[in-house]
Specification:
By secondary structure, this protein is α+β, with helices and mostly antiparallel strands. The protein folds into 2 domains: 12-124, Roll (Thiol Ester Dehydrase, Chain A), CATH 3.10.129.10; 173-317, Thiol Ester Dehydrase, Chain A. The protein has helices at residues 31-43, 134-153, 173-176, 197-216, 296-320; strands spanning 6-7, 12-17, 55-61, 64-66, 75-85, 89-99, 106-119, 129-130, 178-183, 220-229, 239-249, 253-263, 270-281. Strands 2, 3, 4, 5, 6, 7, 9, 10, 11, 12 and 13 form an 11-stranded antiparallel beta sheet that branches. A hairpin with a 3-residue loop joins strand 11 (239-249) and strand 12. The longest helix has 25 residues, at 296-320. Residues 279-299 are annotated as: Disordered.
């Protein structure tokens, strides 16, 4: 390819059978593979011309729905395509299908939108793609401005910390909050010694599942991911602390907020990421123990979570209304 513009790369698809290593106690975690296929397609365009070679760094994951659970032994078909490029970023749409290889049954299990930046040590320009219709570019530009604003708005909350509490009362935020500590090793990293964002996403899902199980005393499945914002890259050798806490409970679902701290062993620099994850009980038929807010900050997070829950519920009901 040559010239200032490039054609939109063809959609790509990867297939892999789900193994026990891909699963937690109650569910298969597909987040890591979603990020991997997104990184592949978003890296290709910038290395297709004579310019500095680079890799794609995940900056944000938009609201992601988990429509059906993925089971061990099923084949995951993950397809992705580039839908928009700005000067420094790329929007990638990902769809995940599950296939039972014994019956041939296929289901759409996940849909996700991811935004990548082009960099290794600095942000590089992204070659523009050619759109088939002007409306596609205009819609993509609108989505780009929206996600950029929302990503910037999360930075002011990055000083928030999950503090441990001795002898907490049941059904309180302190009772179910949980943390995992993980040393970043070579198998977690890219060739440039930065962490695969999919590894971080998998760990956040695990912590969220622990928090929800502690609160509800039963197994749950991830229903949706509200958003994940990546503000800095994590290097090999860092220690990651992934902390989760209850944000909101409805009758049959809970929302978990997850913070990720990355502390360098060599210096005192600290990186933080934030995700809000909404999980629902398997089957959706059991009543959910209600969260008991204690502090003003917990009450504020509860009201914020309630607003997100009502918006998501209205959106789902809108999709279910028969079209004329």
């Amino acid at each position: 390819m040559s010239g200032p513009d490039i054609e939109t790369p063809s959609p790509i698809q990867i297939c892999r059978i789900m193994l026990p290593d891909d699963a937690s106690v109650a569910r298969v975690t597909i987040l890591k593979m979603i990020e991997e296929v997104g990184a592949i397609i978003s890296t290709w365009p910038c290395n297709s011309q004579n310019r500095d070679h680079c890799v794609a760094t995940l900056a944000r994951v938009e609201h992601t729905y988990f429509l059906w659970p993925m089971c061990i032994g099923e084949v995951a078909h993950i397809s992705t395509e580039i839908t928009y490029t700005s000067e420094h970023s790329v929007e990638v749409q990902v769809n995940v299908m599950s296939e039972n290889i014994l019956t041939g049954t296929k289901k759409l299990t996940n849909k996700a939108t991811l935004w990548y930046l082009k960099n290794v040590d600095k942000v590089l320009e992204v070659p523009p793609v050619v759109y088939s219709r002007q409306e596609q570019e205009e819609a993509g530009q609108k989505r780009y401005k929206t996600q950029k604003l929302e990503r910037m708005e999360t930075k002011w909350r990055n000083e928030d910390v999950v503090q441990p509490v001795l002898n907490p009362e049941p059904n309180t935020v302190s009772y179910s909050q949980s943390s995992l500590i993980h040393m970043v090793g070579p198998s977690d990293c890219t060739l440039h010694s930065f962490v695969h964002e999919g590894v971080t996403m998998k760990l956040t899902d695990e912590v969220a599942g622990i928090v929800a199980a502690r609160h509800c005393k039963t197994n749950l499945v991830t229903a949706s991911v509200n958003a994940i914002n990546f503000h800095d890259k994590i290097k090999k050798g860092c220690i990651k602390t992934i902390s989760g806490r209850m944000a909101f409970t409805s009758n049959k679902s809970v929302e978990i907020e997850v913070l990720v701290d990355a502390n360098s062993v060599a210096d005192s620099s600290q990186k933080r990421y934030r995700a809000a994850m909404s999980l629902s009980q398997e089957g959706g038929s059991l009543p959910m123990p209600q969260r008991l807010p204690e502090t003003q900050n917990e009450k504020k997070r509860f009201e914020e979570g309630k607003g997100r829950y009502l918006q998501m519920k209205a959106k789902w009901q809108g999709h279910m209304v028969p079209q004329p």
